[in-house]
Amino acid sequence: MRFSSGLVSGKLVDRFGERAVLGFGLFMVSFFTLLTALSQSYSQLLIFRTLGGLGSSMFSVSAGSLLMRSVGDDVRARAQSLYNGGFLVGGVAGPAFGGILSGVSLRAPFFVYSITLALAGATALFSLSEKRLGKKVDIPSNQIENTSLKEAFRLRPYQIALILAFVNNWVLFGMRSSILPIFVTEKLNSTASIAGLGLTIGALLQGIFLLRAGRFSDESGRKAALLVGSTVVMSAILVLCFTTNVTLYFISMALFGLGGAYVGTAPGSVVGDIIRGRGGQVIAVWQMAGDAGMIVGPILVGFLTDVYSFQVAFIASAIVYSSAIFLAFILPETRQSKLGFELIPDKNKQEL
To answer: Which residues in 155-185 are b (16+ Cβ under 10 Å) and which e?
Structure first.
């Protein structure tokens, strides 16, 4: 649902602005999460969770647009790192806290999640001040220049960012989260705890290096950050191809975490660099490319694993990911502070 509604969310952002779409999207997810907690059958649970996907798409696109337009390109990657770090912490702490709550009731995590989403929605609507987060506005909101998809698609950096979003999510979320736990238990003859420990090591290293990766991207450029990150991630995949014990598995996960800090920050900064005015649909398509990688990746690597072997799936992922290194190599610099001019001229002052 989030993938299919991405463009709709982008159009809403361009029409009504980030704050309104962000707040409404969070309230929408909160409402359907509450209905999920009250569901009386598995069918109801699936329906309510699916309907909440539109709200999820709305707040992810609007939050991305808000972030990219509220900071300059000299600190954009660091801001993106903090934003990604918030998701990383939530992804680790959420299941842990939810597991504790599920001991009380299986419905309890959904109730708590609904409440926290409602609080976040209220924060978005009432606490995000335009004067604090954006430049002073001299023109009405409905006259603000939007960066269109047509303009963005003409730019090579945006084309590269779309492909990078797809292949990065294929590997970092699709392959890593789908077949690796099975690989550890079936091929390495280890336990689920070891598989989880490896993923935790990767998440911790990614969190530790996120801000450093953002600073490196802002100071040395998006191209340099992507070259470093994609090379390290490729090394992680290659280690997996030859992994025969738990030690090599841990090394691979550590490399995934380190490389993920760089490749998880720089592509979003590239998209932010090219946007002038509002660019909800531009951000939406970029996020959809990443979502497509998370959808296609597990299906294909799972198929290759079932038909051939884990090693074939890893090698196929390495071949696909080799494109990331090539694209990082040919990526032109996008920071306006470095170029001295804008890829897409901003005809109006920005408003949030």
So the answer is: bebbebbbbbbbbbbbbbbbbbebbbbebbe
> What is the tens place of the pLDDT at every residue in 294-342?
999 999 999 999 999 999 999 999 999 999 999 999 999 887 665 555 5
Q: How far apart are the first and last CA of the chain?
A: 27
The correct CATH number of 6-134 out of 1.20.1530.20, 2.60.40.60, 1.20.1250.20, 3.20.20.70 is 1.20.1250.20
Q: Which CATH number fits domain 149-331: 1.20.1250.20, 3.80.10.10, 3.20.20.140, 3.90.1310.10?
A: 1.20.1250.20
pLDDT of 234 reads 97
The reply to whether domains 6-134 and 149-331 share a CATH topology is yes
CB atoms within 10 A of CB 258: 22
pTM for this one? 0.87
Tokens of residue 162, six digits = 């779309």
Dihedral sign from CA coordinates of 144, 162, 59, 12: positive
Of 147, 159, 165, residue with least CA distance to 267:
165
Domain ranges of the chain: 6-134, 149-331
Task: Give pLDDT < 70 ranges for the chain.
Answer: 129-145, 336-352
Distances (CA, A) of 265 to 7, 83, 202, 230, 347: 22, 9, 16, 12, 27
In our burial notation (b when 16+ CB lie closer than 10 A, e otherwise), range 47-79 reads: ebbebbbbbbbbbbbbbbbbbbbbbebeebbbb
According to DSSP, residue 173 is labeled I
141-186 pLDDT, tens digit per residue, is: 555 667 889 999 999 999 999 999 999 999 988 888 889 999 999 9
